Amino acid sequence: MRSLAALVVGIFLLAASLAAPAGAQEVGQADRAAIQSIIDRQIAAFRRDDGAEAFSYAAPDLQSHFGSAETFMRMVQAGYGPVYRPRFYEFRDIKASSGVITQHVYVIGPDKVARLALYFMQRQADGSWRISGCVLVDYAGDQV
C-alpha cells in the first residue's frame, strides 16, 4: 500500500511539473474563484461517487495517464480519503512558483486528521482551469 501511495504521489508530482506555464506569478481574483470552483465541484462529485464528473476536472495529461474515470476513482478511493470524503475543507493560499499554480486546501479527512491538500492547477488553451495533480501533506499549522 505504501508503494502505491508513493507511486501516486510521484505521478502527481510529474503531472505538476508538466503543467503549462501559468504566466504571471500573481493569481487574480477571477482565476482564484475559478480554481476554487473546480476543486469544489470535484469534491462534490467525489461525495456523490460521480466518477465521470470528478474525472472531467482533471487536466488532459492526467486523464490520459489514468485512461478512465473508473481507474481514476479507484486511485482516489485508495489513497486520497481526505479529499474523497472530507469531513471539512477550507481554501487557503494560492501560490505560484516557476509557472506552477498551487491551491492549498486545509482538509480534515474521515480519520479526523488535519492535512493540506496541495492542488496543482493547469490553465487550458480555452482559459479554463483543470487539476493536474494533488498531494496530501501533514498539516503543520500556519507555517505552509
Task: Describe the overall structure.
The chain is of the alpha+beta class and 144 residues long. The chain is 44% helix and 27% strand. The chain has 6 helices and 4 strands; from the N terminus they run ααααααββββ. The chain has helices at residues 2-17, 29-47, 51-56, 60-66, 69-79, 81-84; strands spanning 88-97, 100-108, 114-123, 129-138. It has a 4-stranded antiparallel sheet with strand order 1-2-3-4. A hairpin with a 5-residue loop joins β3 (114-123) and β4. The longest helix has 19 residues, at 29-47. It is globular, with a radius of gyration of 14 Å. 32% of the residues are buried. The model is unreliable at 1-10 and 12-24 (pLDDT under 50).
Please sum up the structure shown:
The chain has 144 residues and is an alpha+beta fold. It has 6 helices and 4 strands.
**Secondary structure tally, helices:** 6
Radius of gyration using CA atoms only: 14 Å
Approximate shape: globular
Structural class: alpha+beta
Distance between termini? Answer: 27 Å
